[in-house]
Design brief:
single chain, 462 residues, alpha+beta, FAD/NAD(P)-binding domain, six-stranded antiparallel beta sheet, 13 strands, binds flavin-adenine dinucleotide, binds iron/sulfur cluster
Length: 462
Amino acid sequence: MVGGRTNHWGRISLRFGPRDFKAKTFDGLGDDWPISYDDVKPYYEKLERLVGVFGSVENIPNAPDSIFLPAPKPRCYELLVQQAARRLNVTCVPARLSILTQPLNGRPACHYCGQCNRGCKTNSNFSSTNVLIAPALRTGKLTLKTNAMAREVTLDRTGKASGVTYIDTTDGSEHHIDAHVVVLAASACETSRLLLNSKSPSFPNGLANGSGTVGKYLTDTTGTDVGGFVPKMMDHVPHNHDGVGGMHVYMPWWLDNKKLDFPRGYHIEVWGGADMPDYGILGGIQNYAPGGGYGKQLKQDYRRYYGAYVGFSGRGEMIPNEGSYCEIDPNVVDKWGIPVPRFHWKFTDHEYLQVKHMQETFRALIKEMGGTPWGDMPTKEDGYGIAAGGVIIHELGGARMGADPKSSVVNSNCQTHEVKNLFVADGAPFTSQADKNPTWTIMALSWRTSEYIADQMKKRAL
Ligand SMILES: Cc1cc2nc3c(=O)[nH]c(=O)nc-3n(C[C@H](O)[C@H](O)[C@H](O)COP(=O)(O)OP(=O)(O)OC[C@H]3O[C@@H](n4cnc5c(N)ncnc54)[C@H](O)[C@@H]3O)c2cc1C
Ligand code: SF4
């Protein structure tokens, strides 16, 4: 789909911090990136000036401030969350979302309808489709080929990429686009699949896969959620909670791992309150006194209880490991006859213990608000409620960046070590995760790679 997942993403737009690029230096786990925060910082800044992100300057060392538009005020339930967080010494600050609170570059400010996950009629939130691709099309220099399912990258006789073979999904016919430079940006796992499916005598194990690491060191954000009933929020004065289509406050990582039994950190996303009702609201009203019902009583109960809940979602850093990877399934093809990837996943105690800490923290926050968490604390046997790999949809790795071609696929410019006119501009080059959502960094890195390609083309070096 044009624009990919930015059509309906959450717009949480966090810079990685200096420590995220060099985490191994601090705790010996995973690998350091061959680039540092200072290499990416100018591209975060360009992105923020072009796209816009709201937030507040907080000077938190590993949660760098962006060039912020003003943040919206906390909603009623978010104020209560903030007060409880302060009492428990958990940092809670305005959220950082790529939604305009002031007009920017011809796009109007948000009018607070709270419906961002349906797109935005006024282009006040960010999606690649509206904010990047539409203006690029207007230049007349971009040709968009839709209904085109890329199957493999082809090579010329000199070993350079010569283009891409694709299937026209309207009729199943096969075509080829010639290219001077090929940039893969199909998302981390699909880029891995494309490389692994691009076999040739010079690359029998997949293109640019001399290291054998294509598809390897896949990670996803660690995650778990806890919600709960908060009586203090019952029978409130009806008012509009909508705001932007996302949280107005969040909690960046606030602790020191030296005092904990797991490495790295997580941030906390906050939900709750009485936003626009949708299908299935308060499913489970029978669990509240007086136990559900019919007619007038049921309506009164909905009015009393609707919005009297909060929830927290932990989003943390998984350490890459050799047991989490994808490979081509030798027996299964998709409807176009293209071999599909199969996945192997392994979490270790690093992730399980981090998620246990999330569960304990979220339950403590709900209790601090005078509430009751829904359900019991998941046990060790249940992995403390950890979301399965892939569920948080922050998959990264598969063509990781590194200085050594023996253990990585791309160099510090996201250029494959082995094919100099082949680049990767999605989450696949990430050497590691962070306790941040990844898309702001995917976009900053792809801007950096684009500038490098333009520079190399001008020098006729590709
Ligand atoms: C519901 C949801 C909420 C999210 N919220 C956040 C958030 O708040 N903050 C954040 O940072 N991240 C968030 N994410 C993650 C974010 O959407 C991804 O990190 C980001 O979109 C990845 O960008 P990408 O370009 O690598 O991949 P995608 O956005 O998946 O784009 C890949 C593109 O390639 C196309 N494609 C794939 N295969 C082929 C092929 N074989 N041939 C041709 N085209 C192909 C796809 O159609 C698509 O257009 C969220 C994701 C979801 C689903
Ligand atoms: S809440 Fe989201 S969808 Fe609604 S106007 Fe604001 S940016 Fe657009």
